[in-house]
Design a protein that fits this description.
By secondary structure, this protein is an alpha/beta fold. The protein is built from 17 helices and 18 strands. The structure holds 3-methyl-2-oxobutanoic acid and zinc ion. The site of zinc ion (ZN) has 6 residues, from loops.
Length: about 500
């Protein structure tokens, strides 16, 4: 029997620390439910002490999730740990994850604590955490740049104090696979009570090595990997969940362990996270990118048609791709629409939301005769989780002609009142954004604009992401439409609605 590799997902905590990826409580809950469906072992739902909103979100996830352990992060101090303990109280299975930095540079410059003080504080932290749960994880922040002797010392002490998982983070993404594996091997060999805990790794992707380092650590004996959907996370992100899971599954001969993940839920999870955070997935991203299973070259196509395994090491359907399955057309009814959404794992909150989404589906089916699963997913992620949108696109007309200045004419609904506006720009998208700004006067700065095709073909919907920043807030907006200029305007308005919303968007960094 192979060992089990524990998949610890931190999309809702470390992933949320990506610029603009902050989520509302309801959005976190939707993602948590999908992670549970995917059978992730541990869901790190947030950092309870960071804000009341984050506390509420961890608490709500702890109440809702039954089949995965729900975890809160906490610095190694009494207040953080008590907040984390209260937040996970309703969980069927709850974990506290406490951390303190152990590298010389962090201890000296950031914590201003001596190594002895750090060990003492870590041991105290485990004691506080054990008052709430028997499932306590300890992380040595910046372990990747810490001294091995000091790591052995602090890990031995926290295991004696009752830690049950020891996590070794490469916080700044500095390590390389062979050396990181050697660190894990040495720790397991040298820490005298190492057999009492699960060894875990948490790798950042600054050198593009997060997955490689995590997998090397698994070969060296780590049995928990911390990762995120789509590799979301601080800076260059964390190790990507889908890559870890599929590498271990596809190369069981090498890793000698299994996960319990339902891999068919991977692509739906990727789309949900991308839709909610507004972080598009690059087309050539392994496993979940639109081209990950597309064979363009004639030689490859011929080989795959003759015998699939000539060029395919995994099956697209095993990770949840539905191969653009044609699901519906303009004659499909409301019941078929509802059933397909349920099959796709999309949550329908109310009859009102279903009716609204169905009306939009009918509009889309008039423009685009074949509606694929991807279209339905985009349509539903477009359905605002916030009941009242302050800014809404009512009507639009764009003009773009050789030798003429591009122009956009929009009718917007602003707080329920209609406003007509017109603007020129260097292109129709620029004109549309200028027209919206003329009404909204947000003064927000545009940080990112990107367009992706949701499915193939020239009638595919374009999915646009717009990132705006204003004062200390960064938000991502998304919009989808068969007309990419309309999709762009919707994405801009979606981002403005997030800036305007009173709903607290959570981000432990802020
Ligand atoms: O990167 C890191 O060190 C972390 C810890 C809090 C685990 O996210
Ligand atoms: Zn991290």
């Amino acid at each position: 029997m192979n060992d089990q590799l524990i998949i610890f997902d931190t999309t809702l905590r470390d992933g949320e620390q990506s610029p603009g990826a902050s989520m509302t409580r309801d959005e976190k809950l939707r993602i948590a439910r999908q992670l549970e469906r995917m059978k992730v072992n541990v869901i790190e739902a947030g950092f309870a002490a960071a804000s009341n909103g984050d506390f509420e979100a961890v608490h709500a996830v702890a109440e809702a999730i039954k089949d995965s352990t729900v975890c809160s992060l906490a610095r190694a101090n009494e207040n953080d740990i008590r907040r984390a303990g209260e937040a996970i109280r309703p969980a069927a299975s709850g974990r506290i994850h406490t951390f303190i930095a152990t590298s010389p540079i962090h201890m000296e410059k950031k914590l201003r604590m001596s190594p002895d003080q750090v060990v003492e504080q870590a041991v105290r932290a485990i004691g506080w955490a054990r008052e709430y749960t028997g499932d306590v994880e300890f992380s040595a922040e910046d372990a990747g740049r810490s001294e091995i002797d000091f790591l052995c010392r602090i890990f031995e002490a926290v295991i004696n104090a009752g830690a049950t998982t020891i996590n070794v983070p490469d916080t700044v993404g500095y390590n390389v696979p062979e050396q990181f594996a050697e660190t894990i091997r040495t720790l397991i060999e040298r820490v005298p009570n190492s057999d009492k805990v699960v060894w875990s790794v948490h790798c950042h992707n600054d050198l593009g090595l997060a997955v490689a380092n995590s997998l090397a650590a698994v070969r060296a004996g780590a049995r928990q990997v911390e990762c995120t959907v789509n590799g979301l996370g601080e800076r260059a992100g964390n190790a990507s969940l889908e890559e870890i899971v599929m590498a271990v599954r596809t190369r069981k001969d090498v890793f000698q362990c299994d996960t319990r993940i339902d891999t068919t839920q991977i692509v739906p999870a990727s789309k949900l996270v991308s839709g909610i955070t507004g972080f598009p997935v690059q087309p050539n991203k392994a496993i979940v990118g639109a081209n990950a299973f597309a064979h363009e070259s004639g030689i490859h196509q011929d080989g795959v048609l003759k015998h699939r395994e000539t060029y395919e090491i995994m099956r697209a359907e095993d990770v949840g791709w539905t191969t653009n399955k044609l699901v519906m057309g303009k004659h499909s009814g409301r019941n078929a629409f509802r059933s397909r959404l349920i099959e796709l794992g999309v949550e329908i909150k109310s009859e009102e939301q279903l009716n609204h989404a169905f009306a939009r589906f009918k509009e889309l089916a008039d423009k685009k005769h074949e509606i694929f699963d991807e279209d339905l997913q985009a349509l539903m992620s477009d359905e605002s989780s916030e009941p009242q949108e302050h800014f809404r696109l009512v009507a639009s007309s764009f003009h773009s002609e050789t030798g003429e200045t591009p122009n956009a004419r929009l009718t917007l609904s602003v707080g329920g009142k209609e406003a007509k506006v017109e603007s020129n720009g260097s292109g129709p998208v620029d004109a549309a954004f200028k027209a919206i700004e003329a009404v909204a006067e947000s003064g927000a700065q545009l940080l990112l604009y990107s367009v992706n095709a949701i499915t193939t073909g020239t009638d595919a919907q374009g999915e646009v992401t717009v990132r705006l920043s204003k004062e200390d807030r960064v938000v991502n907006g998304q919009g989808a439409d068969t007309d990419i200029i309309v999709a762009s305007a919707k994405a801009y308005l979606n981002a403005l609605n997030k800036l305007h919303s009173k709903l607290e968007r959570l981000n432990p960094q802020v």
